[in-house]
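[step 3/7] fold_predict: job queued, chain A
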Amino acid sequence: MKRVLLLGALLALGACGDQSTLPPVTTLSPEKANVVGAGYSPDGSRMYWWQRDGTQWALWVSPADMSTPQRLPITSLGTGNLLWSPDGSRFAVTAYFSESGFKIRLMDTTAGSAPRQLQTGEGLAQAINWHPDGNRLAYVTILSNGDVVGMAINVDSGLVYRMVPEEVRPHWAFWSPDGSKLAVQIMEPGLATIALADSAGGNIRQLTTEGFETFRGSPPWSPDGTALVYTSNRTGTDDIWLLPVNGDSARPLTNDVREDNSPFWSPDG
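[step 4/7] structure written:
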């Protein structure tokens, strides 16, 4: 009760206080524009966002001060996050088209660059993770036969290959920060587990077996490559867990009645 009363008192004081002391609020987006997914480039010099244009969305860019907004030649029926290369020189984005479904577009950040669609082969494709060399991009695809497979493409040469060649269960994979290992999400009917493989997709071993473990949010690897973060609903609600890859036991980072999911690592881990 004391906490409720204190909160009420603070709200009352705030309502009676001098509103001129509040910091000014500046609207960055164009007036009446329907804008979603705004975010900065890795160096903070530019801002990107999706803006509604009739029945589709268009990607826009501007200097961080929003002085000269410019529409980019990328449109989509849905909005996706920009996946930046390690050096911040280019980004991949998954766009949705009524004719061909989900496809991956790649764009350099140099002035005058045009986006190009990556030739990811048959089926739909969604970008999920860059290799630390900045040349390879991991994506998950649904093949024409319905198989869900983790694939990679060299964005310069166009070479496409399976990341875990011997895995027949539905799966996708994320490179570790140094590129030496793969964290593999395996999906079976009613089960979701996590495995570890080497960089070539071999020597795969299960890290979890309960069947509630899913990667959501950003790539799951800790910045130092020693642990994975995942979401589990083993208790009936989503909680965030930390899993060392050296074989130690996983432990929960959250444990309450609320839904906790989609974790993101801080840069320093």
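[step 5/7] annotate
The mean pLDDT is 88.
The CA atoms of residues 132 and 178 lie 6 Å apart.
exit 0
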